[in-house]
Every structure is written in C-alpha cells, then in structure tokens.
Prior knowledge:
By secondary structure, the chain is of the alpha+beta class. The chain has 14 helices and 21 strands. It is 44% helix and 24% strand. Strand 15 and strand 16 form a beta hairpin.
Amino acid sequence: xxxNSIIGLGLIFVIMITFAYVNQPSQAELDAxxxxxxxxxxxxxxxxxxxxxxxVEQKKxxxxxxxxxxxxNNQFGKFAANSQGKEEFATIESEQLRLTFSNKGGRIYKVxxxxxxxxxxxxxxxxxxAKSQFxxxxxxxxxxxxxxSELFYQAIPSATGIVYKLEMEPGKFIEHHYVLxxxxxxxxxxxMNGMESVVAQNTSFLDLTWKxxxxxxxxxxxxxxxxxxxxxxxxDDEADFISETKDEKVDLKTPINWVSFKQQYFNSTxxxxxxxxxxxxxxxxxxxxxxxxxxxxxxxxxYNHGASETIDMKFYFGPNHYxxxxxxxxxLEKVVPMGWGIFGxxxxxxxxNVFYWLGQYLTNFGLIIFLLTLIVKTILFPLVYRSxxxxxxxxxxxxxIDEIKAKYPDDMARQxxxxxxxxxxxxxNPMGGCVxxxxxxxxxxxxxxFFPSAFELRQQAFLxxxxxxxxxxxxxxxxxxxxxxxxxSLFTLLxxxxxxxxxxxxxxxxxxxxxxxxxxxxxxxxFLGFFNSYSSGLTYYYxxxxxxxxxxxxxxxxxxxxKAIHKQLEENKKKPVTKSKFQIKLEEMAKKRGIDPDKLGxx
Length: 603
C-alpha cells in the first residue's frame, strides 16, 4: 500500500468519526425514544388484555346462551334433547317445483316454481324462509307446550320425497312425510307413533299455524295487493274469500276443506284429507309496502289419542290456471275470478273453453285475442243487426216525432202518449234497439273479469306490449297524474279513440242530442284514466272489439234500405192495431179506476 492510499483511508476514517459525532442524538431525543418504546409496549399489553377479556366474555356469552339441562327440561320437558341442534337444509325437486326443507321444525323452508319467473326475470319464489311459518303445537302430559318450530328433526331422504323424524325414544316419535307429485302437488302427513301418553289426555286436537309474508311476483305492488287474499272452502259448498281491499279476520266455526293464500297469478293452498275441524284466517296490508299482504291461517287438526295416528294433508304450490285447478276437483278454480251470475257463466262456459282451445293451436296470444273477438262478434252479429234495424226504424219515424215535440213543447206526458201511438201503428218497438245492446253487456263485463285474471296472458308479449297481463307503456312520465298514472298505455289510447269514433258515429245514426250526447263523449275519456293501468290484453280486446263493431255497422248500413223500411212502416200504419194481452189487461184496470185508455196511448 503506497503513501497516497494510506492518507486516503485516514481521511475517510476521520470523516466517519466526525459525522457520527455530529449526528449523535441528544439526551432529550434519547429520552423520547425510550418513552415511545415504553408506550408501544404498554399498548401491546393493553391489547393483549382486551383480547383476553373478549375471549372470556365470549365464552361467558356462549355459556349463557347454552341453557343447562335443568333449563331445557323446564322449557321443553320430554323434548329437551330435541331442542338443541344446528339448522340444516335439504332440497328436492320435481319437473315443476324445487323445495328446500329445514330440519328445524321439519318444514318446507322455500318453494320455487322452476318454469316461471318474476316480472324482473328472477326465479319465482312463492314461499321463503323466515318470511313464512308453518308449525303446530299441543300441550304435553308433563304440562309443557310442544311447538314443532322450536325442535330439530332428523332428515331421512326417500325415493319420492323426504321424511323428518323427531324421536323421543324407540317407538315414540313424530314424522313429517313429504312426497312430490307430478304437477304442483306435495303430499304432506304428520305421523304420530306412541305419542298417546305424551300428548295431554284432555287434548283432542293439534293447533296448526300457517303464516306467509306474500312475496311480490308481478309488475306492480298495487295490482298484487288488490288481488291477494285468502280463499277457503267448507265441505260440499262453494269456495269463498275474505276482503281483498281491506284488512279482515274471519273465524271459521265449522269444518274446512282447504285454505288458500291466493296472489294475482299464483297460490299456496293447504288441503285437508279429512277436513280441518275449524279455524281462523286473517289478511293485513303492509304499511311499509315491502310485501303485498300478510296472511295467517290458524287451523285445528283432529287428534284421537291413538297408538299410531296419521293426519294427511296436501299442498298445492302453483299457478292460478283455471283448467289446472279444475282437475284437482276440489273447487280450487274458484280462486280465479270469473265474475258472478251470468258473467261468470259466460266466462266458464264460453270464454275459458274458446281461449283454451285456441291456445292448443296458436302461441301468439295477441292473435288468440283477435280470433276470440272475431268469434264473439260473429255470435253477436244477429243482435247487432236487429239493433241497427230498430235504430233505422226510429230514424225513419223521427220527422213525425219531431212534429209531435213541436206541437206539444211543454207537455212531456202528451208527447209520450202521441209517440207511443205512432210506434204502435208503425209496429216499432222503441226498446228494440236497447234490448240487443243489453244482451251484449254480459259479454263485455265478462271480458272485464276474464282478461286481468287470465294466467295464459302472463308475460306474453304482443307488439309493443311486453306482458299482456299488465299495462303496456310506450312512455314513462317523470311525474304522476292523478287518476291517470305515471305512464302512457298505447292500447288504452287506441281503445279510447275507437270508442269516441264509434260514439260519434252512433250519435249521428240515432240522432242523440242534448245532455246525453255530451255524457256519451265524457265516458270514454273517463275510461282513459281507469284503464291506463289495467291489463293490456283487456284494452287490446276492447280496441279490436270496437273496430269490429264499427265494421259491422258500416256493413249493415250498406245492405239496409231505409226507404224500403219507411214504405213498410207506412203500410203497417194502415193495418188494424193488434193489442197484446198485457195491454188489454192494462186498459181494463184503467177503466175500473175511471181512466180513459186513450191517454195510455192505446189508440
């Protein structure tokens, strides 16, 4: 190593010593570092202490949450061993249903209809978990209350379903048997073996509770709410239901065959093989608008204290399809509202069968509605023809009627008398045009009942309508118009426009004037708001029906010669007036009272 290298290394060493001396921490800085280390160590100790405390508290909570054997015996008595467990689920399915079961309560936990969707495209779940309850209870011989929902059952899969078993000891058990059917049926039975000494001796029934928070399936909350309710049926009687529009509770004091939680297009129904002894049902609206309805059924199951006893029931989880429900042969098709009296008869005998027949050959329900309208209008054509002829006769006689009106302007009674004389001489019935129209009304009203409840239209698209079972919307408004809504239904607009066109044409043909003329124009405009949120299938039907009616009127007008009608009426006036038996009787009664029959329009 030469002298320069030694000098260089020496300088580097001196620089390092000098740098270390200049940058060494002061005493204050050394004290601060010591304090920081002490603080970190203290925090670590506190965290360790807190963690230890948390572990202790958690263990205390677990011990507190886990009742001891004395507490369990006090609460559950002979079923204490079945009161502890972990909730586990099992799923079975058929072509139509996917059912999820829970071992807690041995009940159906979730029901999914595999071949249907909600309006938003998500799976259609009819019943779900904590939003439903299905349990039964009875007092025990050791003065405890047995409630199936509080106990854990053992799941036993079977070839056709699943069994949930609650065993106290060999030979003493309760089993829930579930068997899937081919369609929407699920057979359900409660089998009690060796339980006669466990159930309190003075008990002759099991108290079953069935609750559901009805889940929204369709497009609008309002439609689901106004069509959801509870149906029920007494044996050998027609099904009935409680109010759809308000909260209601009804006590059913006599045996009941079935109870159905009915929604707009689906229902969950519990059917008893040997009838429920009695029960109570209740519906409530959800003020928070989270669910369409809350539904509850409390039903009494008969129990006879036998050594081995089975209570058989059946569930139906499926659509409100009239033909499908009809095949069950228990009157469940009543949940599909068809109307009362003659309106219901029209739908059940004519509309449903024609609709079902057309549906076997066609898949486009817009075309099916068009053909249904064509069939209905063809059947009603003779009535339309008679109505038109009657109106034509009245138009021919109008000049004479106007003369009478001018002759007796302030005497309405005399006007009516003179008018009746002219009608009688000419052989014209002034009500002849009204009767055919009245005979058509049951068809129009029946359709009003049928289309909003026709399951076949659900989620069926046609033209711009994405779902014929609900309203069509070509434009969503940024605000809500009272009595109209927040959207524009094109089918409703077309229906209203065609109704106005027909009304204008009809008023011209019949010569309607004054107040009645303006009322006839106001009604279609009022219907515009009423039908805007109704089934587009219904408004489409009314629109097509109006077009057919206008076409029929124009066709008949081309074939009817009003000059020939006038000539025939003049000939009729020359013939002697034939009085009906009713008219003769009326005149005899008038004579006995000292009234001149001529003032009745008899001559």
